[in-house]
Every structure is written in C-alpha cells, then in structure tokens.
Amino acid sequence: MSRALFSPSPLRQRFRPLWWLGITFVAISFVTRIALLVMSGSNVTPNPVNWLYAFGVGLGYDLVTFLYLAWPMVLFLWLVPTRRASVTGLMRWLAWLAILVVLFAACFGVLHLLWHAHLADVRPLIPVFLFFLPLPALAYNRASGQWGLYILGLLLLYGLLFVAASELVFWNEFSSRFNFIAVDYLVYTTEVIGNIRESYPIGTWLTLLVVLALVVFVLSRRGLRARDDGSTLMQRARVPLVWLLLTAISVAAVNGEMKDRTANNYVNELAGNGIYQFFAAFRSSHLDYKKFYRSLPDDEAFRLVREQLKAPNASFTSNDPRDLTREIRAAGPEKHLNVVLISVESLSGDYLGTFGNKEGLTPFLDSLVDKSIFFDNLYANGTRTVRGLEALSLSVPPTPGDSLVREHDNENLFSLASIFNDRGYESEFVYGGYGYFDNMNYFFSHNGYKTVDRGAIAPGTPIHSQNVWGVSDEDLYTLALKQMDDAHAAGKPFFLHIMTTSNHRPYTYPEGRVKWQAPSRPGAVAYTDWSIEDFIKRASAKSYFDDTVFVITADHCASSAGKTSIPINHYHIPLWIYAPKQFKPRRVEALMGQLDIPPTLLGLLDFSYRTRFFGQDVFQEAPDGGHALPGTYEKLGYVHGDTLTILEPRRRLEQLKPDFATGDATPVTPVKQGLVDTAIAYYQVASDLFKQGGLKRRADDGAKVAPLPAPAATAAAPAAAASTAQP
Fold it and tell me: Which of 86, 154, 221, 722 lies 20 to 30 A from 304 at CA?
C-alpha cells in the first residue's frame, strides 16, 4: 500500500483525495478534543501527562476511526471508471438498477433467514445501494467524476462537522463521548429531535455548519482534484483489499475500553473518538454476562445470592439451590392501603436543601422530610429512566446492555404490580408522555400494570404546558387523580406508579409557578417541587387520602459524569414514604439501593407474600448489611460499606474506596475478594435467570402466605434499628 500511495503512479494520483479526507478528519477531531477539554474545566487537572494521554491515545482512535469512515471514498475512488462511463443509455441503466434491486433483495433475504429481519430493519441498507447507483455513470477524468468527488467530499465534510457539533452538545449534557444513550436516542428520533429543537437554536446552528463546511471546502478543494493517467479496475483493487485487511485487524485488535487506563474518567473520555465510541456502544447493546464479565461456577453464584437474601422474616420455599423464591411473613394483618409511587425525572439528592443545597429549590420536599419516613442513603440503579423503572417494578440489579424494560421476552415477569394485583388492587403506570418511548407501555402492560399515558387525556382538557417529552407535571397529576378517583369509586384499592417528565431538558413549565423563568434547570427542579406540593394538597381533599401512602423518589440523578467510571455521588437519590395517618416520621440512614424500595414498601404494609425480588426490606437487614448496585449499560457496581466494586467487560475489575460526597475514589489494595464474589454473584444470577426465564411469574406465586403471630410490641424496634444503621 505504501508504494501505491507515495510513488508517482496512477494509483497515487487516483487515491490522493484520501489524504484530504484524512487530514480534514484528524484536524476536526483535534479541535473537537480541545473544545471538550475546555468544557471539562477543573475536572481535568492542567497536567501535561493528562494532555499527552488524551491527545496521543486520541490520535490513535482517530486513525482507527478513519479506516471506517473513509470507506465511501475508497469505494468511489476504486469503482468510478477512468475515462468514460460504463453505464450509458436507457437499457444499461435499467439493467444496472435491476442488479442493485436483486442484490438488495438478496441481502434482505439472508438477513431475514438468519435473524428474522423485517423490511423496516433493513432500511439503513437503502442509502448504501443509492450510493452505488450513480457510480458507473461517472468518469473520473471528466467533469462528472470531478463533481461527483466534490459532492462526496462536501457531504463527508458536513457530516464530520455535524458530528463534532453533536459531540459538544452531548458532552454538555452527559460529560461523555457518544455512548449507549446516543444509540438509544437514534432509535427515538421524534422525541430526541423534538427535544433538540426545543432546547437549542437548531436552525441557526445547521446554517452555520453549512457555511463552515463550504468555507473549509473552498479553501481545501485542491486536495480533491481528480486525476488518473491510466489505472485499471483490477490494479486499483489492491487499495480496497489492503484497506479491508487493515479494517479487519483494527476490529480484532482495538476496542472501546483500551483507552480507559487513567484514574480520571474525563481524561479517558477525551482520549476516545465519538464516532468510534458510538459504534462500540451499538455493538454492546446486548452483552452476554458470562461472555464479557468475570463469573463464578453457577452453584457458587446462586449460593452467595441465596445467602445474601436471607432475612429474619424470609424462608426459601424449596431446597433447589437455584430457586430464589422466598416466603415473606409479616407480623399481623396486611394493610391494604392505596399506594402512589412517584418516580421523579432526574431528582438528584444534590437538589435538596436537606442534603446541603443553598438555592432553595425544593422547599416543600425539604419540609416533607420531617413528616415522612425519609431515607438518607439511597442510590439509584443506573443513569437512565428505564433503569429506575426496572428497579422499582422488578427489584433486579441493572443487568449489562439494555434494560429489561426494553429487552425481548420481557413479558409476565414477577413484578411489584403482580403482588398488589393478587390482593385486588388496581395497578397502573401513569406517564405524562407517550409510553411507546423506551418500550414503557409494552413492558408495563405485559407485567401487571394498566398503562395510562398522554393519549388518555381527554380532548379539550386544559393543558398548562407541554413539550416533546410530555405534559407538565401538574397536568400529569390531574390525570393521576382521575385514575385514583375511578379506582376508589369502583371500590378497589389502587397502586399507581407515576413517571414525571418536567425536570428534563428543555426544562419548560407553566408560567407563574416558580420565580425562575422557563426554560431553566433550577426552575424545572423548583417546579417539580411545586407540582408535588400541589398534588398532595389536591389529594388531601379526597376521602381516601388518609388511607394512601405516597412514595416519592427519583428515576436517576441529573448527571452521571465524574472522574471515576461510577461516580457514586451522582447516584444518590432521595426517598420519602409519606402517610401521616399511618407511619410515624423518622430518618433512616441505612445504605440501600433503588431495588430495595419495593420490598421495603411491602414490609411497611405488613404484606405476607412470595417473592423472587433481589432487593430486600431495609428494616429486616442487619445495621451493616445494606448495599447498593449502581451501574451503567456496561459497568456494574456493587457498594457495601466503604467499598465500591466495579465489574467491567473483558473481565476487568476495579475496586475503590469512594468519597460519597464528591464521587472521587482511591483504589483498594489488596482487593476484597469476598465483595468481588458477591458482586459477580448478583449480576451473574440476575442475567442467567432472565435469560432462562427464571424471572417469570409462576402460577403459585400468588399463593396465600400466613403471617407471623403478632408480637406483644409492634414495629417500633425495627425502625429504631434501621435508623441507626450507617452506610
């Protein structure tokens, strides 16, 4: 390949535009990396070692990425005839078109046979065939070939600038290169494009990108001058063959995790390339646990999980070492109270005055702390809404790859709603947007919930504010109150899981509610607080209020970025269990994970039931027994005591001592192997059970479980024990 590109030969002439594309791409990547470094601020220490790593390793990823993105130009330079077009005249055009249609049909047939692909799944192949359509009609040494090359170069240049601008926006939101979130956003284009249009002056930005692309193109177009003094198709084939070999080697030898070698996650992210990371995340959307992560013998993994799930009020229903089914027996009769579970969009603990915030964003929620059972040390399962919904409905760890909310074969799982339904409850998932997003309606409607979303709002109903994500929270709560009224009128207790949307970019909300003018993130948080207060006030006028438990928590935090791969401070979320006529207020300091909320709630209701939840009732744990399982789509965390264990793909492992206030962490040496094994066991068993159907609801799961005899003194003791537990 070196002789072909550097010797004065027709091949060097023909493939000279690759140099233009390569230099342009590296320059854009370099400028993007500088901009991201500036945006990182103090999170990246001004240290030449950090800079050298970010830009040196980053250049390596840029060059590997160039192998992939240059393929359209490589194919163009190879296939376009030199002196005259090979397809002329109507009959030849029709024949060439027929060949492409047959090839497309053949590709679709193969994909359908191998993976049951539908026509909608192969739409991305259409631009590929459209790319090949005009090539035989061009001539490289003529005006048609030159203009074809100019158009291709300009399109690639605009695409690279568009990606660079998108990276800046994505970094501003997530402090990360493109990752699995970006892949998700590509699926839900209506909401994402709508969100961008409502959040940014997208028309102005696109126009500026067009102008910038034209300026760069005009100044550098000499690098795209077409010339070929006589190469043949077969001679030129050597270049794409070598390019194919280099591409295959890069796929086998390079992966997205190789850059993660420093203790500062910002530096690691800067060292990546957004385009490369996007496709690496796309390939990681379905991660088989045992293939990518450290594992234990199955019997050992199940033994450890069963050991962890032991509790004073729990007993396993069988001696099968791989069956997690337990009977939970409460003391005394069940309280069939109404339950309203509110998972608030992005309600970070950092927003609360209770946890030190000085902006006065949440006066009502702060006042509710002393009127509720309030949990100080709760940590979210993940960084996406679907992870919070998964934890709150299924009480499972965040398995790698996609959330179970979006996985295939996720119907009829053992869920919180199924436990309520066995007791005659009306269980509903109420959402302010359209529930097809993130597969929410399908998941909940197939796992014990009735789904009620934006489409259920009657025409003509006043809407105070709305954006692409949904109606304002106060309108969502109006819809929820209607569902509560209907269930009560039907003589049924109700369980509502309400998912809010207002505290999400573009941060719009009705005028006159808070002092911040929309759009504003602080204002959106304050409006979240205002709307919950308004909801509680309206609900307090209902006859069923005294018999209703309000559970208020977050789906995840507002930010997931930090210097470590799992910055624990950005997983800290609040939890209120508010029922002034039912539960005495207290603060609970025990460490717990989001998946512990369902069993803890059921424990407060004195439910006796069968369960396969991975979470546990915090009031039944030993003071030092609490733990949390925070994760990303590929990094799986386990927090116990002062140690954070992180399992990573390719069987890598980190064990850290985190600062719960700042998210910084220091390595633990030597590694605490017992915690490593427990972390492995939780994630391995959860992944195996879902894959093998072990999380499905069984016919006998609704069997009646007899309560324990009521003790002489009621539940004050467990509360006192839990409230003194320390993380």
Answer: 722
CA distances from 666 to 198, 631, 642, 654 (A): 41, 18, 11, 10
pLDDT per residue as tens digits for the range 590-617: 999 999 999 999 999 999 999 999 999 9
Match 């996720």 to its residue by tokens. Answer: 410
Q: Which residues are CB-contacts of 713 (< 8 A; sequence separation ≥ 6)?
A: none
Enter the tokens of residue 512. 């006159």
Per-residue confidence band for 19, with pLDDT thresholds at 50, 70 and 90: very high
Six token digits for residue 639: 């927090």
Contacts by 251-257, CB closer than 8 A, 24 or more apart: 254/61, 254/64, 255/280, 255/650, 256/280, 256/281, 256/284, 257/648, 257/649, 257/650, 257/652
Q: Are the CB atoms for 645 and 266 separated by under 8 Å?
A: no
C-alpha 479: how far from its chain's center?
A: 27
Asked if 110 and 104 count as a contact pair (C-beta separation under 8 A), the reply is no
Query: Are β-strands 665-667 and 627-628 bridged in parallel, bridged antiparallel, or unpaired?
Result: unpaired
Beta bridge partners of 343: 499, 553
Strand partners, 425: none
Distance CA 204, CA 664 (A): 39
Give the confidence band of 468 by pLDDT, cuts at 50, 70, 90: confident
For 489, which DSSP code?
A: H
Residue 726 · residue 589 · CB < 8 Å: yes
H or E element in which residue 442 lies: helix 440-445
Structure tokens at 667: 């390595």
Prior bond to 519 cis, omega within 30? yes
**What SS3 class is residue 585?**
coil
* Dist CA 714 CA 565 (whole Å): 44
pLDDT of residue 145: 86
124-174 confidence digits (pLDDT tens): 778 878 888 888 888 888 888 899 999 999 999 999 999 999 899 888 876
pLDDT of residue 726: 38
- Beta-carbon contacts of residue 508 (< 8 Å; ≥ 6 apart): 198, 465, 467, 472, 502, 518, 519, 524
Tokens of 597: 């909320």
Q: What mean pLDDT is reported for the chain?
A: 90
Which residues are paired to 374 by β-bridges?
576, 587
> What is the arithmetic mean of pLDDT over 263-287?
83
Is the pLDDT reported for residue 193 higher than 70? no
Q: Determine the Cα–Cα distance for residues 593 and 639; give it in Å rounded to an integer.
A: 9
Q: Please check whether residue 182 is in contact with residue 174, taking contact to mean a CB–CB distance below 8 angstroms.
A: no
Q: Is 159 helix (H, G, I), strand (E, B) or coil?
A: helix
